[in-house]
Amino acid sequence: MSKQGDKPKTAEFHLLPKIINGSIAGIVGVSVVFPIDLVKTRLQNQTIGPNGEKQYSSMLDCFKKTYRAEGYFGMYRGSGVNILLITPEKAIKLAANDLFRFYLTRPDGTLPIVNQMLAGGLAGACQIVITTPMELLKIQMQDAGRVAAQAKAEGRKVERLTATALTKRLLAERGIFGLYRGVTATAARDVSFSVIYFPMFAILNDMGIKNGQAPPFWWSFLAGCAAGSTAAISVNPMDVVKTRMQTISKGSGEKQYNSIMDCVMTTLKHEGITAFFKGGACRMMVIAPLFGIAQTIYYIGIAEYLLGYK
């Protein structure tokens, strides 16, 4: 059971400030960790060549090559799309979890762990309406430099699309569903992540409660980091599958996948089980501070003060 967020049924739930807090948290968090997320995407998408060669030998090598080829702002390729869409995405995720926790809390104010997991899973399911197109566009922008570098080394030239041009192309070719490529893999990743993350964060955050007072901001930050990194590595295999399925512009010799099972079996056959943990360290480095920062800002309650709820 958990104390954090648990309230008697007679308590009021104010959704608007939760949405505003989630939006602010998302913008700040993603701005800080985006370069690491870019490296994660490129590491997950690279495949081993016929002679065992790799485009990037490590996370640091990917950082160096990206910075050398594309400069500082190259590390933020695709960030515009991500920051634009992370606002509703984080708002939905954080506010929906609190909303479901509120309504799943028992009349005596307790919230069993099963209900916490259900609330988290429902919040994860709600966010995919925004997450799927956001990740689809972000991945193309992030991976464009890797594909271009590979093409240049082979004497080819690859046209680099903007997020706007890509969106128009997908809408023209497949309608609105073109922006939801990989939605099943995204749902599997995000629901699983939220089922693990939110209950774990609530339990860890409750440990910082002293004399009935809310935990200090740094405790919420550490709780978010710990829960985020644990959930991130747990769902990394599905994140690899999702990333590969959503990548439209492939490098030479890289395969397009027909389904989640096709992606899983092909990756397992040609690269082994370790391929599903590519970018795992990067993902933990992205998610830990992202959710640590997001949860800290979210629970500071800026919107409550501005709107007069405190």
UniProtKB/TrEMBL annotation:
InterPro entries named among the record's database cross-references: MCP, MCP_dom_sf, MCP_transmembrane, Mito_Solute_Carrier
Record's subcellular location: Mitochondrion inner membrane
Record-level Gene Ontology MF annotations: L-aspartate transmembrane transporter activity; L-glutamate transmembrane transporter activity; symporter activity
Regions that span the bilayer: 20-39, 286-307
Solcar repeat copies, ranges: 13-103, 111-207, 215-304
Swiss-Prot/TrEMBL keywords: Membrane, Mitochondrion, Mitochondrion inner membrane, Phosphoprotein, Repeat, Symport, Transmembrane, Transmembrane helix, Transport
PROSITE patterns in alphabetical order: SOLCAR
Coiled coil: none
Any single GO CC term annotated in Swiss-Prot or TrEMBL for this entry: mitochondrial inner membrane
Function description: Responsible for the transport of glutamate from the cytosol into the mitochondrial matrix with the concomitant import of a proton (symport system).
Similarity section: Belongs to the mitochondrial carrier (TC 2.A.29) family.
PANTHER family: AT03939P-RELATED, MITOCHONDRIAL 2-OXODICARBOXYLATE CARRIER 1-RELATED
Name under which the protein is recorded: Mitochondrial glutamate carrier 2
Lineage of source species: Eukaryota, Metazoa, Ecdysozoa, Arthropoda, Hexapoda
